[in-house]
Amino acid sequence: MLRIEVLIEEKDSLGEGPLWDVEEQRLYWIDSYGPMVHRCDARGQDVKHWSVPEPIGSMALREQGGAVMSLRSGFHFLDLDSGEVSRINETQPGQLRARLNDGKVDRQGRFVAGSMDFEERDGIGKLFRLDRDLSLHTLDDDIICSNGPCWSPDGRTLYFADSSRGLIYAYDYDTATGNVHSRKVFTSFEKLRGYPDGATVDEEGYVWSVEVYSGRLIRFDPSGVIDRIVGLPVQSTTSMIFGGADLDVVYVTSMARPMGNEYHREREAGCLFAIHGLGVRGLPEPRFAG
Prior knowledge:
It is a single chain. This protein is mainly β. It has a single domain, classed as 6 Propeller (Neuraminidase). The protein contains no helices and 24 strands. It has strands at 3-8, 15-21, 26-31, 36-40, 48-51, 56-61, 67-71, 74-78, 85-90, 98-105, 111-117, 125-130, 136-143, 146-151, 157-162, 167-173, 180-188, 195-201, 207-212, 216-220, 226-231, 237-243, 249-254, 272-276. The strands form 6 sheets. A 4-stranded antiparallel sheet has the order 1-24-23-22, with no helix packed on it. It has a 4-stranded antiparallel sheet with strand order 2-3-4-5, with no helix packed on it. The protein is globular.
C-alpha cells in the first residue's frame, strides 16, 4: 500500500540533492540556500548538519572519506569530521550569474554536475565532469538550468534536464572516458503542469523525474513515455532518491521559499518526505573516486 510520510519536519528554504549511501545506511540532502548539508538515518533520526560557505547545488560522498560538493563557484571538498571546506576548482570564474547546481557520480566514480543561470533566463550554464584526478572537463553548454543527471543501469546513457526549457535529454555516455555525444530529447514537459527537476533511475531502467511546481513524481519508460505518476502533498517538490535497507523507499525533498500564491497553502513545503509501497527498487549510488 502506498504511504507518504513527513520524515523531517524541519523546513529547507530549497531542499535538494537527496543521496542514500548504502555503506552508511544514511540519507544525505542539502538546503541550497541554507546553505547546508544534512544527514539522517532511514527513520529520520540521528540528524546532523554541516554549514557550507556558498549556495550548494549537490554533493556526493568520496571513496576515501568526506564529500565532494558543487557550490556556487565550483567544486569543493567537505571534511565531514572537521566541517572544513576546501576548493578544488572554479567552474566559470568571472561569470557572476552562473551557479553550479545538480550533480551525481557515474558508475566509474566521476562526478558530473551542471551550472545554471542564477536568474534562470539565459543559456550560460554548462555541464561539467570532475574526474578522479580532479581534472575538470566541459561536456555541454547553452544550458539555462541544469538538473537531474542520472544514468541508465549499464551506465551508457546519461539523462540530464534543462528545467527552464522543460526538457530531459539523453546522451550516449562513454563509460571509459566519461565523454558524451549524440544528445537527443528524451522527453518534453511541454504538456505537463510543471518542469523537470531532480531525477533518478530505478533497477528496471525507468527514469523518475520530480515535476517541480506540480508536486508529482513521473516515471518514464526507457523510450521516454510516461509510465506512472505519483502525487505528493505539496507542489514544491524538488528531487528524489531511492533508499532504505532494500532501496525501495523514495525520499523526496521540497522547498519552503515562496512559490507564487500556492506557497501560503503549503503547510509542509520544505519538509523531507518518505514514500513507501511503490513496489520499485532503486540502484546504489556510487561514491566519487577522487
